[in-house]
Design brief:
With 292 residues, the protein is α/β, with parallel strands linked by helices. The chain has helices at 2-6, 20-37, 68-74, 90-93, 115-120, 126-140, 158-163, 166-179, 192-201, 217-231, 243-251, and strands at residues 9-13, 40-44, 64-65, 80-81, 97-101, 146-150, 185-189, 205-206, 235-237, 258-259, 276-277, 286-287. The strands form three sheets. The protein has a five-stranded parallel beta sheet with strand order 3-2-1-5-4. It has a five-stranded parallel beta sheet with strand order 8-7-6-9-10, sandwiched between helices. The protein has a two-stranded antiparallel sheet with strand order 11-12.
Length: 292
């Protein structure tokens, strides 16, 4: 590590219990800052029972990793700093190592590359790419649909579960079907039994099955596939206070209208208004839906 630090380095630190959305935005934000400042870059990405996959198990990302214990040892000499970048001045630039420890989006200067842009350029591993492409062709067929993301698992953020109960999603989807019969839904839920019940009882629903254990390598790969499929929707119903939802939004270049339980309900939703994706792995690129 000393040779890396001698050139000036940035380490992005993720906690062991950090979720996917937080990890991705912290790593890519810190990497953007390192590029802007001409520093080398590495990141802490703990794996184990709480979170199984490495970054490279999900996307083709060749960045260098640092063990959590090494980062903590280095913190005695190079203390952790936060996402605000209020600490960044000429004196800090003379320090050999910056360690950014946060679960928040790093407040990058305007001249830095936005982390969401780098995220859109990531290439998912073959297992994820094949799952997205196959499901999109077999189940969605190039037609417009509403993406529904539900967080019901016990480990989901308490604010998310409190403000976005499953019952709200079910009621909202039923009203959509009443207002626009034939509306299709892609449902992503972190509790398989809830997802299966919704897909069974509400018309026009589909979703991935057999997604693997929660936060296992297989489970997170399925979650990433869900992100791409959600990003291919023309409208999103999602939970309040969820970074996972933001991953889907950013993949679609933040163009998809999003509704949560804490927002006013629009009178009618048209999932075809935004067009449909040309390639489910590039959901920011769309073509118009022909008017019948």
């Amino acid at each position: 590590m000393s040779s890396t630090a001698s050139r000036g380095a940035v380490i992005a630190y993720n906690g062991y219990d950090s979720g996917l959305g937080n990890r991705v935005r912290v790593v890519l934000g810190a990497q953007s800052l390192a590029e802007l400042e001409g520093r080398s870059f590495a990141y802490v990405w703990p794996t184990g029972k709480l979170f199984g996959p490495r970054f490279s198990d999900l996307w083709d990302f060749p960045g260098r990793t640092v063990p959590r214990a090494v980062s903590r040892l280095l913190a005695h000499r190079y203390p952790y700093v936060d996402a605000s970048l209020d600490w960044l001045d000429d004196g800090k630039r003379r320090e050999r190592l910056w360690q950014i420890r946060t679960g928040s989006e790093i407040q990058l200067p305007p001249q830095a590359r936005p982390w969401a842009e780098a995220y859109r350029d990531l290439v998912p591993v073959d297992a994820i790419a094949e799952a997205v492409t196959r499901f999109s062709a077999d189940e969605l067929g190039g037609e417009p649909y509403v993406g529904v993301m539900i967080r019901a698992h016990a480990v989901s953020h308490a604010a998310t579960r409190a403000t976005s109960p499953v019952e709200w999603f079910e009621g909202r989807m039923r009203r959509m079907v009443e207002q626009r019969p034939g509306t299709r839904f892609f449902v992503s839920c972190d509790v398989p039994e809830v997802q299966e019940r919704i897909c069974r009882t509400i018309p026009g629903c589909t979703g991935q099955l057999d997604k693997g254990a929660y936060n296992s390598v297989e489970g997170v790969r399925s979650a990433v596939a869900d992100v791409y499929l959600l990003a291919g929707a023309g409208y999103l119903l999602g939970p309040h206070f969820s970074s996972f939802l933001h991953l889907a939004q950013h993949l679609a270049d933040d163009r998809i209208p999003v509704e949560t339980a804490v927002k006013d309900e629009p009178p009618v939703v048209d999932p075809a208004a935004l067009g449909v994706v040309e390639d489910p792995l590039r959901p920011s690129v769309r073509r118009a839906v022909p008017i019948p």
